Amino acid sequence: MFTYLVRRLIYVLPVAVGVSVICFLLVHIAPGDPLTAIMPVDATQEEQAAMRSAYGLDKPLPVQYAIWIGKAVSGDLGKSIATGRPVADEVFSAVKNSLLLAFSASVIAFPIGLFLGFLAGYYRDTIFDRLVTSVAITGVSVPNYWLGIVLVIIFSVQLGWLPSMGAGPGGSGSWSWDYAHIRHLILPAVTLAVVPIGIVARTVRALVGDIFSMDFVQALYAKGLTHGDVLFHVIRNAAPTALSVMGLQLGYLLGGSILIETVFNWPGSGFLLSNAIFQRDLPLLQGTILILSLFFVGMNLIVDVAQAAIDPRIKRS
Amino acid sequence: MSKTDPRSAKADRGGPNQPLIIAKDLKKHFPIRSGLFNRQSATVRAVDGVSFDVKKGETLGIVGESGCGKSTTARLLVGLIDLDEGHIVFDGDGLGEDISLKELRRGVQMVFQDSYASLNPRLTIVDSVAFGPKILGLGNPTGRARDLLGRVGLDPNRFADRYPHELSGGQRQRVNIARALAMEPRLVILDEAVSALDKSVEAQVLNLLNDLRREFGLTYVFISHDLNVVRYISDRVLVMYLGEVVEIGPADVIYENQAHPYTASLFAAMPSMDPDNLTEEPPLAGDPPNPIDPPSGCRFHTRCKFAEGVCSAKTPKLSVIGGDDTHQAACHMQEPGSGHSAAIKEAAE
Amino acid sequence: MSAASDTAELAEPVVKTRGYWSGVVRRFSRDPVALTCAVIVLALILAAIFAPYLGLNDPYHASMIKRLKPIGYPGFPLGTDEQGRDMLSRLIYGGRLTLFVGLMPVVFAFFIGSALGLVAGYAGGWINTLIMRTVDVFFAFPSVLLAIAISSALGAGIINSLVSLTIVFIPPIARVAESATAGVRSLDYIDAARASGGGALTIIRVHIIGNVLGPIFVYATSLTSVCMILAAGLSFLGIGVRPPEPEWGLMLNTLRTAIYVNPWVAALPGLMIFITSLCLNLLSDGLRSAMNVKD
């Protein structure tokens, strides 16, 4: 187990470096000069050159990368061009809100997905199975940014029950678990939960259905185990895969909530990112993508290690 | 170069006394990687110093338990895996010196055990058989393929355009034989080629193989764990144990008189039709030892009831049995002066 | 001839030879759900292509007076948008860019990813390591984030959207192609073909492509729905198709302000995305079972 953990860590390093290289290069594949946004229109050649060297843009790319990653490792992601605040501060306060949203969506999605998936796998090829399958395929097919708008139309515009945007009184910085705040969380969290409900239900259905058709289930019944005992064995066999799917979905929720956050003006990392896109705030864009993708890499790592820890079949290799 | 002329590979260049293939000290070790940095932590000695030759026109049977290196030896002979050490000489031409791998493969073809996995499921059988001739640039590959299908007992008008899943196991193995023959080989290696077939179908395919051998003047290396089948088809038999040759000799001689205790126990395990010849106790206990860490000295000593001190200390060499130099066994009991109590004390003076 | 004489086992009823593809077509044609979805997707594509011949209103013609008219307004069956342009016309014309940008990246990624996966899976060794570790790096991004990151760096535009979405879908396809190829490569018939003297390229062409392309193709079709949603999502964010072109994601975005005035017209472009993506998913499922591809 320890060897596996260390190997997995060693394997994740080059991936993390690769991810950072891509984030770094993003700014450089951008057409035009990264400085145009902050450069005065009438800047002379000399002023431009001075600016260039001040930002280190006159050095060769590998050197620029080394400087950038060196700073990034020590927590310095540069300053936002739009606000002048450190990118790291902006990103971390936004990521907190995104995590809040992602976890809330998971709390809604995972139990529902597991429940539906298990029942559909158990009652395979019945009406119930077909119903769950339809719900699941609808869930994975719906463009969730549109679903968010539809929910706003129904529950905010028509019924007036829930607010349509923002994170509650006090803006982005002050979250607390009271009604005034939770009201704002409901619609975006439900919207975000729809896709993972579909994915978890589909996966668990296939998983449980396959396990029930395996010979060992027959053998357990033949041994005289009660129905409940057999179910326990089936669940134990399905658990590692189901957990890893849910872990990955949590990662996707965090990285994929950009569109939902835009729809609901939720002050998370996605909202930050879409602002950065509009203002062509490249340091902010770069920093946000780096943090989000590294978070996803970390999530994958945790999922793999956790799966290895509970699944005796993958101790080796 | 005249050697690349496809027809020259067919010619009997070395004369009738030159063995068709000589395998000299073949070695193939597979690394086992594990640990933090995928370092090589152990090796499986799948084939460890195997030497033999196959005469023109004969059938050499190779027998042994699963995992003894039979199939690895086969794949080495066709060049499907690279040799670690050793030499292969094909009709007097050394592989890598006088002939290339490509030229070797022209002369040596193989039929595999799994008749389904050895046919491309998306190709009709005539296309599968025609693939080799097409690569070689032989004229009219489809015509050749149809002709060969007929020769292996599959009427081309009925079978040529079928897919593998539309044939029975025996029919598929006939296709595989036709596919091997399409390369006009001189040596065909049959790696458990009939083992997966029903007994009745097996007999038909064995008869077919015998007929084809005569018709095309083929030489066979016939690998099997079924001693009855090997006896039926082979002129000589080679017995392998844990990657080594323990005994080799004419089939009649070995089936009457096994010089190596391992060969003896293999034959004792063979089901007999004679009611007086009952198998009272299991002739071989347990599984073969792990080839990752084979026993010292004679590799069979851990399971041999005649084992003595010398057996774990010294590796026996192949020595001639009973003055007949075609029959050899690697056992200290057969080696004069080896130190084993059953051995002759000194070589005859 | 003696070799052909022992034909005992051959005496069996002759079955009509059936290729793989005729079986696929037969199974697919017996799947009503998949057939319906195929018809809908085909209809959307045809309507988009032949939009100019359908006698629709000019999708670019704006009118200050006729803004945000409801569904069923005379002359505008599906109402008008925030600039008074005909919604029905814009939705049908919108299919052109939406479907193009939503489907083509998977097509490109299918070719590039399959090629990479085939090479990596057949060659093994350091070539495999080089290709697959690079793929791993791109795989380490959530697809939405990667698409948005590249698109926002490149800027809005159809070509840029195509490029970024293609990059997003190459890694998953390359992975599937690699594992399918490695699986086929270990089968005996590849060894037999190698023993017949076939070179790597010939073996890939004759013996591997035919056996791995099916599973890769089915997998790629399962990505089309995600790609549609992502492509429209990029336009929704303002980093895809530029106004005033009709495109469903962009229309959804520009109509957002209208949800208080005429909510159901505002929801129409999203409904189109939803219907298309649902049909693409069901179509992919149908293909999967018709082609006998296991996960």
Describe the structure.
The complex is a heterotrimer of chains A (317), B (349) and C (295). Chain A has helices at residues 2-29, 45-54, 61-73, 87-122, 127-141, 144-158, 179-212, 215-222, 227-256, 258-264, 269-278, 282-310. Chain A is mostly helical and 317 residues long. Chain A is globular, with a radius of gyration of 24 Å. With 349 residues, chain B is an alpha/beta fold. In chain B, the strands form 2 sheets. Chain B has an 8-stranded mixed beta sheet, sandwiched between helices. A 4-stranded antiparallel beta sheet of chain B has the order 2-1-4-5. Chain B is globular, with a radius of gyration of 22 Å. The termini of chain B are far apart. By secondary structure, chain C is mostly helical. In chain C, helix 2 (20-29) packs across helix 11 (263-290), helix 4 packs parallel to helix 7 (158-185) and helix 9 (200-237) runs parallel beside helix 10 (248-254).
In terms of topology, how is this protein built?
The complex is a heterotrimer of chains A (317), B (349) and C (295).
Chain A: H1 2-29, H2 45-54, H3 61-73, H4 87-122, H5 127-141, H6 144-158, H7 179-212, H8 215-222, H9 227-256, H10 258-264, H11 269-278, H12 282-310
Helix pairs in contact in A: 1-12, 4-5, 4-7, 4-9, 4-11, 4-12, 5-7, 6-7, 6-10, 7-9, 9-12, 10-11, 11-12
Chain B: H1 6-10, E1 21-34, E2 39-54, E3 59-63, H2 70-78, E4 85-90, E5 93-94, H3 101-107, E6 108-111, H4 125-136, H5 141-151, H6 156-159, H7 169-181, E7 187-191, H8 199-216, E8 219-223, H9 227-233, E9 236-241, E10 244-250, H10 251-256, H11 261-268, H12 309-313, E11 319-321, E12 324-329
Parallel strand pairs in B: 3-8, 3-9, 6-7, 7-8
Antiparallel strand pairs in B: 1-2, 1-4, 4-5, 9-10, 10-12, 11-12
Helix pairs in contact in B: 4-5, 4-7, 5-7
Chain C: H1 2-5, H2 20-29, H3 32-49, H4 87-123, H5 125-139, H6 143-154, H7 158-185, H8 188-195, H9 200-237, H10 248-254, H11 263-290
Helix pairs in contact in C: 2-11, 3-4, 3-11, 4-5, 4-7, 4-9, 5-7, 6-7, 7-9, 8-9, 9-10, 9-11, 10-11
Shape of chain A: globular
Indicate the radius of gyration of chain A in whole angstroms. Answer: 24 Å
Oligomeric state:
heterotrimer
The percent range for strand residues of chain A is under 5%
Q: Major β-sheet of chain A, in short?
A: none
Helix content of chain A: over 70%
- How much β-strand is present in the residues of chain C? under 5%
Q: Structural class, judged by helices and strands of chain C?
A: mainly alpha
* Count of structural domains of chain C: 1
Beta strands of chain C, count: 0
Low-confidence stretches of chain C: 1-14
- CA radius of gyration of chain C is 24 Å
